[in-house]
Amino acid sequence: MAAINNATFSINSAGNIRQAAAFVAGTSVRHSTLELHAWLQDLADNPAAVGDDLVSILGTNPSELAGKRNASRPMAVTLLPNINIDDATSQWFRFGSIEQNAGADLYTGLKVIGSLVPSSPIYILQNNAKLSKYWADADVDVGFQILVKAKAAGTLIDDGDVTVYSRKYGQAYSHFDVNLAAGGEQPAALATSIDGNVDPAVMTPVLAASYFSSAIGGTATPGTQKITLAYGDTTQDLGGGQGPKLHKGTMTLDGSITLAQAYQALMWAVSEASTVLFNGVPGWRYRVLPGQTYAENIAAPLGTFAGGKWFVAQGWWLAGVQVGDSKAYQLTSHDGTVQTPPTTVAVQVGGVQSGDYVLAARDNGGAILTNEYSVSAAAGAVTINVPGLKVDTPASGVIRINGDRYTYTSWSGTTLSGLSPAIRAGGYAAATPAFIPFIDGVASSGTIGSANFQYSAPITCRYRVRNGGDVNPIVPFESTLQVTETGGSGTAVRNADA
Amino acid sequence: MALTFLPTELLIESDASINDLPAFHAALRDWEDSEAAAVHPVTHTYKRVDLGGGAAFHAVDLVNGWRLRFPVPGTYQITGNLGAEIVPVAGVYVERKTSAAFATTAVGSGGLPPDQVALLQAIAQQLDRVKTETGLIPALL
Question: Which of A142, A249, A466, B101 is the right S-S partner for B33, CB 3.0 to 4.6 Å?
């Protein structure tokens, strides 16, 4: 580096080293603290002060190297005793630290290391506020080295802690906590890369902002936002077999956006330019769900998107996922349990014709399992409790109670609701056998299928197809099919029966 | 013939003789594809073998434990090849007739194909013409 030009700085009689002109980021060239020390020592051996640099052999020694000179403290300059710089002048220096006012003030060197996308923008957080930038984005391409004020008037600023961020929308993010109290030059290890799951040309920052309510810094009229953020305990069962789990926050999508879109909008919401607040925390310093101490996902604070799947950050419950995305995400509960969405499947029988009666139900090893459950029911009831109701029960369909057919519209827990017709006169006594077929009805086309249900384990399903009518009567057909995590399908063989 | 099905007992009850096996078969199949019957095993197997000339061999065998019962005392006939266990009922007598040849049925046309009818009519016309012209009665060998 070039030696300091006497015209760059002045030193007045009070010992104030001041810049002749303001440092211009990206244009001005910083000097190392060693060069500052060398310049001061060069002035100090002058027989008399020259120009506006009022330091000479007639005064006290203006500076000294302090501390042990090693890799971690390559240059720690102490200004003596009243020689000092101000904050603006400190921007001209790098590589090492400058201590002054008998140790009451400290400017510590900060260096960014690591692999970064060219011109990855850097911002520095101190006391939860961004420092005004006196560096250029391109500095990371040639070596990001600056001084940051760590102590003022004898007190460390925020204990000397700063966090160095690089969160440019469209890139994977990075941040690093640094303590500047020791002086010298402290490294901040960052790594950024292009995030292929973000397309800023499509999901523009303006569009992303419109996904959030203006009440939290977005631009959507409250109530019309596509993503709603809420905070507080919620215990939810995603249905993948992990059971109910505690979550500390809820992201609710309005159903009109994909997970890929939600991911991009949320990446913008935690970018450097974000205006969104997360429970009062600005998105640009969001690291984990506010108030929690989860392990951070530095590259994507709200969860990584990879292989078409969103690995949502810990503690968040996700609601409003589109059907097409029903398997494209996973959650991590407050206690760290990974929750996966259930696999939704259905049973389908093909090769049938309109008018064929199709019955498909669990196989008991040669026949239909007709005593799958034991129930009782009161006459006129339109709901029924089915003890031990299996999770792989169709969302809607038919229950056969002692052979009698009732449709139901939904179920929850062990209760089937919306029975039609209502339970027959006389009801059913305790321990009446019942079963819930996957398909139980007349085909209206070439295939007939069940309502969706949650897959939990392989099932052998027996299906029968009958048609004894005057048109296209067939030899009754019966066979089995396997229900796997991709569902189950079978084909009827229709042999004429007349 | 009216049939009553008692699936819990695997019983088929008939109030009349069963002389039309194809119709009996159709009635069973018609019940089997109903909402109530779908949960129960099929009642029977059925075979039809065309013997030519409009003749057919029909066979119905009750299966899966199904049995036949005539609940009202009286005399009944079963015509055709019906393989079934008949549940005895006091005062009920069942006469069984089996045949491997023609069966009279209300199911389908039951007559000769049109081409065979036309052929027979042509032969009859030819015989009438010979009789008229010669005064002789032709003999068919």
Answer: A466
